[in-house]
Queue: 2 jobs
Job 1
Amino acid sequence: MRLSAFAALLLAAPVVAQPVAEPTDSTAIAFIKAEATERGQVMDHATWMTDVHGARLTGSEALDRAQEWAVDRFRSWGVSAELEPWGTFGRGWKSDRMAMSARVSGPDVASQSFPLTAAPKAWSPSTGRASGELVVIDIDDDTLDPATLDVRGKVVLMGSLSDVARGLEPLAQRRDEHELLELANAGLAMTRGAQRRYSPEVLARYRARAARTQAVLTGEPLAILTPSGTGGSGAVRAMQAAVPEGQATGAGGRAAPWTAGVETVAQFAVLDEHANRLIRLAEAGQSVTIDLDYAATFTDEEVVEDNVIAEIPGTDLADEIVIVGGHFDSWHSGSGATDNAAGSAVTMEAARILKAFYDARGEGPRRTIRFALWTGEEQGLWGSRGYVSEHFAPTPGYGEPPTDVLPGHANVSAYYNMDNGSGRFRGVYMQSNEAVRPIFRAWLDAFDDSTAQTLTISNTGGTDHLSFDNVGIPGFQFLQDPLAYFAKTWHTHMDVYDHLDPDDMEQAAAMMATFAHHTAERAEKLPRKAMPDLAGN
Amino acid sequence: MRLSAFAALLLAAPVVAQPVAEPTDSTAIAFIKAEATERGQVMDHATWMTDVHGARLTGSEALDRAQEWAVDRFRSWGVSAELEPWGTFGRGWKSDRMAMSARVSGPDVASQSFPLTAAPKAWSPSTGRASGELVVIDIDDDTLDPATLDVRGKVVLMGSLSDVARGLEPLAQRRDEHELLELANAGLAMTRGAQRRYSPEVLARYRARAARTQAVLTGEPLAILTPSGTGGSGAVRAMQAAVPEGQATGAGGRAAPWTAGVETVAQFAVLDEHANRLIRLAEAGQSVTIDLDYAATFTDEEVVEDNVIAEIPGTDLADEIVIVGGHFDSWHSGSGATDNAAGSAVTMEAARILKAFYDARGEGPRRTIRFALWTGEEQGLWGSRGYVSEHFAPTPGYGEPPTDVLPGHANVSAYYNMDNGSGRFRGVYMQSNEAVRPIFRAWLDAFDDSTAQTLTISNTGGTDHLSFDNVGIPGFQFLQDPLAYFAKTWHTHMDVYDHLDPDDMEQAAAMMATFAHHTAERAEKLPRKAMPDLAGN
């Protein structure tokens, strides 16, 4: 009785559809892995980007030459490549010469000068050889009355004592199981949290600092110094110069130092250890003079900037595309190695590997595979947003909803981005798109790298996949080991070739190529999240 | 039968003398610890040495002013202090201005210049503003024929690609129990091993490098660059310039760059990441020009150099002395914080604490306590050797046996030195003197710091206690946590205040004061090792 009742229950149970196994291509994976490691060239691409062409600031001639090199290198593999303009950026700029030192003078101190490790903030104007009295202003001093400031001709250090790590903890990390499990178990709540980058308190503090900076900027100082905020890493982090309010606005409606006609003061980030010394000297009542020798050149006033777009054409589904990319521009003080020669070299290497594979197979991919090296990313994803606006869905500004949907929009299966440093791929951020989980899981299983198995529903932000995700096209970043990205290299003068990890770069290239190949070959395009509302809806 | 036989055995056992308990002074220890922490000033001493007076290269005016400050500060506590000359050193020197950058030029590369993080080697002559073509010479290339070198007017990078740590391991360490146990269990064999600093292979390699350097030095280059050898730490290590052979010799019979009349080429240590970039650029066939702007001043030709000697006079045993010290001079590129403002500030703080204690007690120490801030240490322990030669036993050169023994020799109970960075005291190197073990054990027990309990028979070298040990006077260094001393700060431009650990500095000052006090108050002077043979015996 009991048994037959149980049998009846079984029979009555709803029929659960067995998921159709996601096809994977073990031949391709084996080829790709061998090509990436045994015949890998990813570090050679990185050498040319970083050591030879150097920093690739948007608008600069160095970026132009590096882009030409990249186009040539794609073509040398038989991969078609072009420069495709995305719009007018602003002014070109480069630093030609930079030295800074401090002199302590006092009746009881020997006349001596010590060099300060510093980097100009981008688009800072020249000072030439000039000297100014040091004035220290605590940027967090709420009692500071901007009206009483007298900084004319002085060198103003805006900041307070910074923490300096003494090295008992490693600067670089690989993700451990605890962290990976947390990501694997993340719910959608975490994806929303990931988009919010600053707490209200932090934001309020930043705004107060900006207000005090405005007071100093308009006081005609010789130069403004700020502590780098990277104490103990040996690195100096420097992005763009701040500008006085009320000047001409450029693209995006912002007054930026790259906007033609905008004037500002020379600004420098200073190694925390050295900024701390200046602050302590002031506290000890010592008079300090800062000697500067700084020259920069503004080149074209209105640069038309390009992305590099390369392509392996598809076959039976050639109208549909999968895109792989990373931004090629960098900040100016290092050579843009982990941010983002890493992603650019991996993108190029994925192209080289896939071209070799399709040549060996004697048949191209089903869908077209594009390789994009964006520019203007550091100033607000300009290159990728321009590309998406032109081809898929126009968006007026960063993070704003699209105003229209173009016919090409439906044809993009996915965009894969790399821009979190050199660290090994440990999995994929699904960017709130739960429907891709079984597909990505099958691809990760087939790729068979025990270090890269984690899928997280969580989002990651701050880079070019957002330009796609923002208009409803599946855009993804891989989950990477952080290494010393935020601790040391991100936007710093230490972002140089030797902080790239060759093994991790090869693994990333292989996995990027595998994901592109599977996306190009699968029966359907990747499932999408709900389309965002158009602007005005 | 058996039992009574056993009892007989017991009775027959030799009588073992119970060791006389080593007296300790808990009142003093409590006072010292409170003074060191609750009213501690050690970091203020360090601020003045490093931030205000800065680098204290032997022979420099900066060192003179810093010594005057130290004398004044000792006196401000009621501790007598004097400058005591130890001999004629050589030339004074300081770097006034230093900037270095590299320009890559080629038909396909944008005209751009990137700064190189570098530091002059001490006593390098000025180059002014000058440019030279980069030539890379692999210093370990055994096929290099010096006769074929053409380096006239060029900037020669002598070196090969350096390893750059990517930060997955911490730069700084505290000693763990494994390491401490190994030191605790060390036998005398280890003490001999500790004296031998280089393997024959390493020595041979250094000699081959030196020979190739000679070939370049005599080829009239504009400048010579060498990789710093500190890759990944962010630091540049720079000591003195190499000199061409066959020139005038100075004190110690060596031709040194500080010897009056010696001429050499400007030499610079370069951050490994930047040297690697230059090497890879050369390998990639790129032409590179190095732009230099470097000015230095040679001051006096023959500096008479001093030690700072301070003293708290003894009472009933005032003729006998205990000495506490560290070297006050530094290299030039940082501000000599861990090497050795640390030891100097701890020495001064020990003086301040002990003066406060004896004042509170109303009675001075039994033995005289001296506080010595040596100079010329970095060039070969000149200051401490000069002092020992003058007062205790003349020695003609570094590590050479004494030629005589002066009456004062018998009066020194012990010398305690600190010169291994800022790291916490974990115990004491007994310097092969087994007889001090029960004494130091009692003092460590009484100091009651669970982190500082290890006694090792092992030796440590390379600093001023050797000047005493070498003539048979007990000379000791404390066993310290290394922190990032050799990894980052030692002799580098990153040897600055923020890499000092305040807690460790306070603990060291308290322990140094305690050891000095117990040595000054105990019934007997410390036991000695066998007296070394005099020269010629």
Job 2
Amino acid sequence: MHLETPENKSALSEINGINQPDSISDAVAKQIQQFRRKQPSANELITRIIKGDKIALSRAITLIESTNIKHLEKANEVIQGCLPYANNSVRIGITGVPGVGKSTFIEAFGKHLTSLGKKVAVLAVDPSSSISHGSILGDKTRMEELVKDENAFIRPSASGDSLGGVARKTREAIILCEACGFDTIIIETVGVGQSETAVHSMVDFFLLLKIAGAGDELQGIKRGIMEMADTIVINKADGDNISKAKLAKTEFNRALHLFPAKKSGWIPKVTTCSAITKEGINDVWKIISDYFDLAKENQYFQNKRQEQNQFWMMETINEQLKTHFYNHPDIISLLEQNKKAVQNNEISPFAAAKILLENYYK
Amino acid sequence: MHLETPENKSALSEINGINQPDSISDAVAKQIQQFRRKQPSANELITRIIKGDKIALSRAITLIESTNIKHLEKANEVIQGCLPYANNSVRIGITGVPGVGKSTFIEAFGKHLTSLGKKVAVLAVDPSSSISHGSILGDKTRMEELVKDENAFIRPSASGDSLGGVARKTREAIILCEACGFDTIIIETVGVGQSETAVHSMVDFFLLLKIAGAGDELQGIKRGIMEMADTIVINKADGDNISKAKLAKTEFNRALHLFPAKKSGWIPKVTTCSAITKEGINDVWKIISDYFDLAKENQYFQNKRQEQNQFWMMETINEQLKTHFYNHPDIISLLEQNKKAVQNNEISPFAAAKILLENYYK
């Protein structure tokens, strides 16, 4: 039994089912190609990842992202082998609607972190990327400085049909990045749809990026994103924008007080910064550090990670139960019949469900 | 196979597993007792319900609410028999936080409807009632006039462990009420938690009851309840409150415009009323009638009901798939083991899910 059906007809070549990552430079591309030719075993990959080898890390994430069943099994082996070396990190989710300057912010923030001696991995959850082939983090030139940084690793969003699948792959990639020695994991997502909730369930800290006067304040409240935020950072606080950003800070601070207190005991902070002038970037990290001091001290950090692990186990099970049912050969045509009967009020929804379930379990 | 595990050890008596409804009066109680002694068959119940017999209706709803497996089968038979006579109604959901005067409003509104010749059934979805034994609609004396009305039927919320179970029972009770000739079904729910979403998925029209200056405006937005509302009715617009209520009306009207347009093509209306003086109650019905004219004309009404039926079929299936898995003898202890292993980072959540699923499907 496996969690995903391979779409590839042939399982002979490991190339099948893999979206090739963009090469960073010709030299690196050659290294990757050489490494690939060697067809490293799961054990080789694990050994190299633990040593901090970014090429092996890239290669293993590619295995995770593959829809080829052979790759899936190998990927699971690699994850299991990396697991004892994972978990020593802080995981930060960053969201914001298009236009708030997420890429520029992550570049400035990431560079600040590597200047403090940290190793930074940037991953993304973007379910729309299966259509647009990576609308976020896809254009790596937007993070030119960070890409070149020895202590940074940037990976675009996995593609996939469902948010669940994309999120699972990212969640697994976190483990590999941590085993590879990355101590600060940044998960980027776009401020649309349900992807924030998925990211929220895999990070320790959630950062909402905003700009002053965008008029999307109410939308943030509506979708509950503001309620999830541990900090709101108002970006583009430079030049003529500074006074507007300060005003927005006051407004968001007031709005945040209307939400119930957080279980972590943390009071969400609002701050301003400019990813261009770098003004305020250090304050963002100061806020995040303060949060981790508090949450590790009161055990919330540790407890939340345990809860998240259980959540992902249950989510995976619940998703798979549905996949198995709705793709079962005995169910597919029976489901269509019953859907029609329910539509025409010939049978109650509950009686129809009962018939389908009885056929499934018999 | 059955949809719920009976908690009763003996299935010998039909009294087991049934929460006895409060008797409306001693005379009615005696009638019910006599009727119960007769142990009517499913066919008898169907025949009597279709004739408009409220005692048979009560009795059948009690069967639906029972956790006794014998009752469940009989209940399903009754529902199936009533189905061809159901569906000729309008279903109105009413929500509002405690203190907005839901009971008084529903009494005044219900009396207005019966005065127009309508037959009104009032049901409730209140998952908290399993603890408090009916915090809403439980105290029937609060609807004294409507209870005595020949053309009204009032039933407190079913109790149950889960919102899903309570909601399903109410959803089934709607079918019986409709078969019994009730053309206007009101579903009451409290303005807390997820019960609004459940009610929204079983009604044609959603009414949000408010009072002026309660300070819960933002909370309504936060939970998306305001977004679900087809009308906001500001109650207690009497005496000194009238000007405050008018002000609130303007504010809510402005807030509603910030939400995206409804698929029904309907523009949500805000109105004021007093359940005490009856002022404005007829306007509420006018708004609802206008909505139904529009939604039936543009087929939204019919399409939404079909969608809702399918939704309930799928929901029932998805819930049952989980119930079956998590209660499976092979899974229970294995799940505990894997939960612990996941907590201690000995296994990834995904590998643990895989082990559990392999054991389940083998």
